[in-house]
Specification:
mainly alpha; two-stranded antiparallel ribbon
């Protein structure tokens, strides 16, 4: 184990170098790529046109079939009928034209009447005869009032009938003709329907009460007036075609859709779809690999950012990074091995993966935030590695299952992470696994047999319990190899049956009681400033282990014994007292105790001065060096060491008081803290002045609770006892 730990230490030191740190992340990326490469590699089929499919082939993803979409759009456009617009103004124009013809005939009649009247007046004076224009002259006059086109299009018979009719007859004929024209042209008249429309006008005018000649003229005028009023509208037609094309939904080959069934002939259309889906052996696509590289880059960036912003010593950060890498690779390796069993067509084999293992290990050994990040990454990787049962690249059901399982175990754990708690977390994860699988089965209304439900239940239980068992098995290995002091290890070290704690209890009971009191004070003080209270408690248990070498030389163990320091010179006494620090460090190292516990034992006195023996030495010898009466140090490097040192001094000082009052306790605590600050004993740790004030206040409150006033019960006399009996 020592060799393994030394190897890990060497690797950890290499991670301090930027090149090896980049190489470390590159190795993680290569492991991820190698594990997931085969799962994103497009399936290639050796198929040829007009061959027979040996198996049913489904689409690996959803792809738009642009050719089919375009064909469908063309078909939709072709189905759009041309748009013909009704020109209502044409009706009014033709009505106005016929009205003007009848009006011209009326004007000709009026002119002739005026001329005849003038002739009549002139004939009376001159006694001559009046001459009335003949029909031909009247027709000529009427044509003169009309356009050449109208005169040419209508026959002379029509004009002759008009000029031979009276104005009243013309008015009636006009109304009848205009009405007939309006009735017919109010409806659509296409090119093919013009003749039919003319016949309808003719039918309407055929049975009027007009005289024969005028009726025939009205019919001719009506037929002449009716023309085509429906014309092709290219703009409206194009707009409808555009709308039809836009309304066509893109034709897609859906993920999982059968492209060709087993035994069917691969025609040109099917061959085109296979090529479109990228399933032909002669088609090479690098997109899946590019996507995988991008995904791995995102994952590695998230991991790098977490460790980059981690507020801890570089040595500790590199240890955590190496530990995370090993757990990460181990989880991916287990996941890959299980995913390879998919070739045996075991449905839901991925559910047996111990999804909670990595998260539990990281929460206990490093941090909850990193454990949650690990769970998310494992869920993403699992959705790719266990994609054999789905037609797409991602198995979302498996990803959700892994995420929920890991988060359930992580959130269940608390600071008291002993072995039974890990088993409970695994059991809780197993319960969540069962519920998650049931939810994933019921959501799509899946139909399964009782055997299948039982199979899924077993995989869920194995995953949860297996995660706990693997965690318990791997945890001591990681703790020993990396020298990590986990919460579980601290709880084990706090067990009173530990050999060193029993050694203190049996050989130095006063020191044992003192250590327990210091542990209570240090734990509450550390928790008040956000430091590791459990570490402070356990460190306090062992901080004076060195006193077991010469227990009688320490005042808390001198009950019913003389003080041996009364017979020793001050320098000898100081050396004995100071040596309990180095002796304690040696004992702890001999028992392979964690470095954090050893540091607290070495640093709890810092380089403070043994004032009692120093002043005693000065009184007996003027030539005294202060350095000889100071502890060797080092000074406190962490908040926990600083708090344990203050709590140690405070407990010893308060215990020496005959009648400790709240005021006296508070004054004593402030004095001890001020002496530590003035002596520079807290300069090398990251504790702030505000945190020191919080520690002082917490120590005072805890001591007041311990040394609160009690009711003194008077002793009962023998007489009273007899009476009571």
């Amino acid at each position: 184990m020592d060799k393994l730990q030394q190897n890990f230490i060497r690797i950890r030191k290499l991670l301090d170098i930027t090149f090896f740190r980049i190489l470390f992340f590159l190795v993680l990326g290569i492991v991820l790529f190698g594990a997931m490469y085969s799962n994103v590699k497009p399936e290639k089929l050796d198929l040829s046109l007009f061959s027979v499919a040996e198996k049913t082939i489904r689409s690996p993803g959803t792809i738009e079939d642009k050719k089919s979409t375009e064909d469908k759009r063309k078909e939709a456009i072709n189905q759009v009928q041309p748009v013909y617009a009704l020109k209502n103004e044409y009706t009014q124009n033709r009505v106005d034209l016929i009205t003007s013809i009848f009006q011209a005939a009326v004007e000709v009649n009026d002119e002739i009447k005026k001329e005849m009247k003038k002739q009549e007046e002139a004939a009376t004076e001159e006694k001559s005869e009046k001459v009335e224009p003949n029909v031909s002259d009247k027709v000529t006059r009427l044509k003169a009032k009309l356009t050449a086109g109208v005169s040419k299009d209508l026959s002379d018979q029509v004009f002759s009938s008009l000029v031979q009719s009276g104005n009243d007859e013309l008015s009636i004929a006009k109304d009848l003709t205009v009405t007939a024209i309006n009735n017919v042209m109010s409806k659509r008249i296409s090119t093919d329907e013009v003749e039919n429309a003319k016949k309808r006008v003719e039918e309407e005018l055929k049975y009027t009460t007009l005289n024969d000649n005028l009726r025939l003229a009205a019919i001719d005028l009506g037929r002449y007036a009716v023309i085509q009023n429906e014309f092709y509208d290219p703009g409206a037609t194009e707009e409808l075609r555009q709308q039809a094309a836009e309304s066509v939904e893109p034709v897609k080959i859906l993920q999982g859709q059968i492209i060709v069934e087993e035994g069917k002939l691969i025609n040109q259309d099917i061959f085109r779809q296979l090529k479109l889906a990228g399933l032909l052996s002669n088609e090479k696509s690098f997109k899946p690999f590019i996507g995988l590289v991008m995904l791995i880059t995102i994952i590695l960036s998230a991991i790098y950012y977490y460790f980059y912003q981690l507020k801890s010593l570089p040595e500790k950060r590199q240890t955590f990074l190496l530990l995370y890498g090993i757990i990460f690779i181990l989880s991916i390796f287990i996941m890959k091995i299980i995913s390879m069993l998919q070739i045996f067509n075991f449905a839901g084999i991925g559910y047996i993966f111990p999804a909670a293992m990595g998260g539990i290990l990281l929460k206990i050994l490093i941090d909850e935030k990193l454990a949650i990040l690990m769970s998310i990454i494992m869920a993403v990787c699992g959705s790719i590695l266990f994609n054999e049962e789905v037609t797409g690249t991602l198995n979302f059901s498996e990803g959700i299952y892994i995420l929920f399982s890991a988060l359930a175990a992580i959130l269940f754990l608390n600071t008291q992470n002993h072995r039974t708690k890990i088993l409970q977390a695994g059991t809780f994860a197993a319960i969540v696994n069962v519920l998650t699988i049931c939810a994933l089965i019921f959501l799509p209304n899946g139909q399964f047999s009782g055997v299948e439900y039982g199979y899924y239940l077993i995989t869920a239980l194995v995953s949860g319990i297996g995660s706990a068992v693997l965690t318990i098995g791997l945890l001591p290995l990681f703790e020993a190899s990396f020298g990590i002091l986990s919460t579980m290890k601290l709880i084990e070290l706090s067990n009173p049956n530990h050999p060193l704690l029993r050694k203190i209890l049996m050989e130095a009971p006063g020191t044992y009681h003192h250590s327990v009191m210091v542990a209570n004070l240090a734990e509450s003080a550390c928790e008040s400033i956000g430091a590791n209270g459990l570490l402070a408690r356990v460190g306090s248990y062992y901080h004076d282990i060195g006193k077991t070498k010469r227990p009688n030389f320490f005042i808390e163990n001198q009950m019913h014994h003389d003080n041996p320091h009364d017979r020793l010179p001050p320098d000898k006494s100081a050396n004995i007292i100071i040596s309990h620090v180095t002796d304690g460090s040696a004992i702890l190292k001999k028992y392979h105790m964690p470095k954090e516990i050893i540091d607290i034992a070495e640093q709890h006195h810092g380089t403070t001065l043994l004032k009692f023996f120093y002043h005693k030495a000065i009184q007996s010898d003027a030539d005294v060096r202060e350095e000889e009466f100071r502890y060797p140090g080092p000074m406190a490097q962490t908040k926990e060491s600083a708090v344990v040192g203050i709590a140690d001094s405070v407990e010893a000082a308060v215990r020496s008081l005959s009648q400790p009052t709240p005021e006296l306790i508070e004054s004593l605590v402030k004095k001890i803290v001020a002496d530590r600050l003035q002596d520079g004993q807290l300069n090398e740790c990251d504790i702030t002045i505000k945190e020191i004030e919080t520690v002082s206040h917490t120590l005072c409150e805890t001591l007041k609770g311990i040394f609160h006033s009690r009711i003194e019960y008077p002793e009962l006399t023998k007489t009273k006892k007899v009476k009571q009996a």
